[in-house]
Design brief:
This protein is mainly β. The chain folds into two domains: 162 residues, Galactose-binding domain-like (Jelly Rolls, Sandwich), CATH 2.60.120.260; 144 residues, Sandwich (Jelly Rolls). The chain is globular. The two termini are 33 Å apart. InterPro entries: Allantoicase (IPR005164), Allantoicase_dom (IPR015908), Galactose-bd-like_sf (IPR008979). Keywords: Hydrolase, Purine metabolism. It is an enzyme of class 3 (hydrolase). It comes from Nonomuraea longicatena.
């Protein structure tokens, strides 16, 4: 069975997530929960509130109750599992935690969310210190927010919310959109190689700040070429391909070709094999035909920062 952590982190800050409210953040800020990357730590680094932690930490409770933080998912969708990471919290981690979720229309305030009808997706679960806790979720509803509850108080370094992106594409009626974008429901379903970085990065929101935020393969020695396949957000017609090799100065592909497929049909050419330049954002008009999947072949190897497939829903 595939690991749910292979799915996108719907809450990640670089995917548009936000920690909109918390019961308390006296020792360490709530925003750290959804930062990208592993939590850091430097011993004997003290500020005015004590040891500095890369995570969310609340004060010691002296009254009944528990602490909580509400996260707006940058990518609304179906949650398949969460990771509650207590990295570096050894004498101050919470003994238990639970996770709730809700689907809220529009752009509710923190106060409105507190009154929302929350659903428990991870029951109260025992935690240990300085450890990743991978907790599977068996629900098929679409959610827009999650609430992390810890009992009674303490520190949690990161919260990862992995799942399948399910956006509301009705807002694009009559308009064009990026059919490949992760935020719109696109997903990389296969690739030839992911030695240096994930192919899923090419459809992530925003621009890549450095090579690790794109897709980069190992050096090929067999005469073949590297490739990736994208399941589009929905069946649509691609009009323009944006192929971005930014930050790839000495390891950009020499050429790229794009092919499309409609359902289980045969692959057809969208963009013939075309020369690329290093560290450059390219834009190419492509053959227009309905497709549900697109395959990008890079020759012979290298990487891409981003791939945008702009078009219209079929």
């Amino acid at each position: 069975m595939p690991d749910f952590t292979d799915l996108p982190d719907l809450a990640l800050r670089t995917h548009g997530g936000s920690v909109v409210a918390a019961s308390d953040e006296s020792f360490a800020e709530k925003e750290a929960l959804i930062r990208p990357g592993r939590p850091g730590f430097q011993a004997h680094t003290f500020g005015g509130k004590g040891q500095v932690y890369d995570g969310w930490e609340t004060r010691r409770r002296r009254e009944p109750g528990h602490d909580w933080a509400i996260v707006r998912l940058g990518l609304p969708g179906v949650v398949r599992g969460v990771v509650v990471d207590t990295a570096w919290f050894k004498g101050n981690y919470p003994p238990h935690a639970s996770v709730e979720a809700v689907a809220a229309d529009g752009y509710p305030s923190a106060a409105e969310l507190e009154r929302a009808p929350w659903t428990t997706i991870v029951p109260r679960t025992a935690l240990s210190g300085d450890a990743e806790h991978r907790l599977a979720v068996d629900r098929d509803e679409r959610f827009t927010h999650v609430r992390l509850c810890m009992y009674p108080d303490g520190g949690i370094a990161r919260l990862r919310v992995h799942g399948e992106v399910r956006p509301d594409l009705s807002v694009y009626d009559g308009l064009g959109l990026d059919l490949a974008a992760l935020a719109n429901g696109g997903r990389v379903t296969a690739c030839s190689d992911a030695f240096y970085s994930s192919p899923g990065n090419v459809i992530a929101p925003g621009l890549a700040r450095h090579q690790a935020e794109g897709w980069e393969t190992a050096r090929r020695r067999d005469g073949g070429n590297d490739w990736l396949e994208i399941r589009l957000a929905a069946r649509g017609t691609v009009v323009l391909a944006e192929v971005d090799t930014t930050n790839l100065v000495f390891n950009a592909p020499a050429e790229i070709g794009l092919r499309g497929r409609d359902g289980d049909g045969d692959w057809f050419d969208l963009l013939p094999r075309t020369r690329l330049q290093p560290d450059t954002a390219h834009r190419f008009r492509v053959r227009q035909a309905p497709a549900t999947h697109v395959r990008a072949d890079i020759h012979p190897d290298g990487g891409l920062a981003r791939l945008r497939l702009l078009g219209v829903l079929a």
